[in-house]
Amino acid sequence: MTTRRRFLRNTAVVSAALAVTSQTRLVLAQAGSSTYRNPILGGDHPDASPIRVGDDFYLTHSSFDYAPGLLIWHSRDLINWRPVAAALHGYHGSVWAPYLCEYQNRYYIYFPADNRLRVIHADRPTGPWSDPVDLGINAIDPAHIAENGRRFLYMNGGQMAELSADGLAVKTAPRVVFEPWPMPATTRMECTCLEAPKLLEHNGYFYLNVAEGGTAGPATSHSVISARSRHAEGPWEFSPYNPVVRTRSRDDRWMSVGHGRLVDTPGGKWYMTVHSYENGYRTLGRQLLLLPIEWAADGWFRVPDGITADAAIPLPVAGMSQQPLLDPSDDFTGPELGLQWGFWHEYDAARFTVGSGALTLAARGKSLADSSTLTTAVGGHSYTVEIDVEIDPGCECGMMLFYDPQHATGILLGPEGVGVRLANGYVPTRQQKGTRRATLRVVNDRQEVDFYFRLPGKAWQRTQESAEISGMQHNVLGGFLDVRPAVYASGSGKATLRNFRYWPEVKMPA
User: Fold this and answer.
1) Labelling 39: which of 22, 181, 317, 367 has CA 20 to 30 A away?
2) For residue 32, what pLDDT is reported?
């Protein structure tokens, strides 16, 4: 089965596969409520780039070091999202801050991979998408805009280049057309870091949103800065409402709020997506928030008075309600690996088979460090994950909470028996040597983690070791990543995995 066939599902199939038992939000909207609560996508979904196509909304976001990449999400109301396709089916490097757009009834995603700009295109937002085209520019954070048939690509550092008519090549070298807004001297921030341009043409003006202040660092870093011009090339004038969005205090729930893109509804309402770290839970990565905006009489936009990211906010589309987030549980009965899964630093379709209730994963590498872990992003302060494992002789398989290959903690089964891997890579003890089948469970209780296992026909056992993972986050480790449940297989032979189960709460074994 080809890579594309494994991962390219239509909307109905994906929704049926993933919309199973619910994952609770940090705050659930009441049934029939006319409001929603942030986040709209919990867990790591940074640099989101939403567009409206008729009555439908689509977005993609950074996929970083995971493949398949550039997951495409669909919504009818800007609040409830479901994945419908993966635009990248191989590993192309670390993918940051993509820009999904439509031009003359064709869809484009401009994105950097390992800091070099590329573009893919398709007839529909769900694809199939073309292979990446290298634009020959070393930069990040691309954004597309057109004026009178001319096409332009903005990028970090206030740079802009003109594109060819088909949008697949660069006509002119990048040049600086926009300077940073002067942040107040009293602002505590990480850096100037002019990045994340987002563009919009509205009522005779071109609007340019950028991020300043740094993506992480102090809680008050990052922001949404806006400017406008009569032309796509500038010159630009700054909004009197700058910063349009910013975390005001390190005591706020949502920290380093920034990277804003505007989108309107069919009913004429306007909203802005932003991403943010959650206070005390940076391990979840940058979560996706939605804020309403209003257009002032002077033609500038702003967030209405009294609206905060942690408020109950009126729903964008009447008659809709906020639903629980997706549950990544997987019984592996389908013929394809679900879109919730991503491999670290590779994608090899020949390495695995799925169906009839089992995922068979060939061992890769000597340990977790080089095994290409299979992961799924989740939200929530506490959760429980569990999986049934069977290994060949010489194979080691584990259920991890994974940040990167050097920083992961979990419980594993291998030739030496059952063991716990602490976040620094230390495996202090082993037990049950010779065991080749077990059920492994990891319980994340607000970043303190316990480990359990059960042998066939036996009672659950809790390991002596536990872990604490609050330091597994970007401000400590770098990488702009998140902690996510993961499985791996290393050594020789294969691991057979069954019944991956997720609960959005602490669940002790019965």
Assistant:
1) 181
2) 52
pLDDT value at position 326? 84
What are the tens digits of pLDDT across the range 216-273? 999 999 999 999 999 999 999 999 999 999 999 999 999 999 999 999 999 999 999 9
**Domains in the chain: ranges and CATH:** 25-314 (2.115.10.20), 342-503 (2.60.120.200)
Q: Which of 197, 195, 242 is CA-nearest to residue 214?
A: 195
User: What does the block give as tokens for 261?
Assistant: 């893109």
Close Cβ partners of 350 (under 8 Å, ≥ 6 residues apart): none
Alpha-carbon Rg for the chain, nearest whole angstrom, is 23
C-alpha distances out from residue 474 to 58, 79, 196, 235, 304, Å: 28, 27, 18, 36, 31
Average pLDDT, the chain: 93
Shortest CA distance to 470 belongs to which of 369, 405, 401? 401
Please compute the mean of the pLDDT values over residues 448-474 and round it to a whole number.
97
Counts for the chain of helices (H) and strands (E), in that order: 3, 37
Quick one: pLDDT at residue 318?
83
Residue type, 494: K
Q: Is 207 helix (H, G, I), strand (E, B) or coil?
A: strand
What contacts 407, CB < 8 A, 6 or more positions away? 423, 424, 472, 477
| H-only helix segments in 266-355 | none
Please, how many CA atoms are within 13 Å of residue 113, restricted to the half-sphere of its CB?
A: 22
Judge contact between 312 and 36, C-beta under 8 A.
Answer: yes
Position 49 confidence tier, pLDDT thresholds 50, 70, 90:
confident
Structure token pair of residue 116: 């070099």
CB 495 within 8 A of CB 363: yes
The token duo for 86 is 């993966």
Closest-CA residue to 261 (of 308, 208, 183): 208
pTM of the full structure? 0.92
Cis-peptide, bond into residue 243, ω within 30° of zero: yes
Q: What is the dihedral of CA 50, 51, 57, 62, to 10 degrees?
A: -30
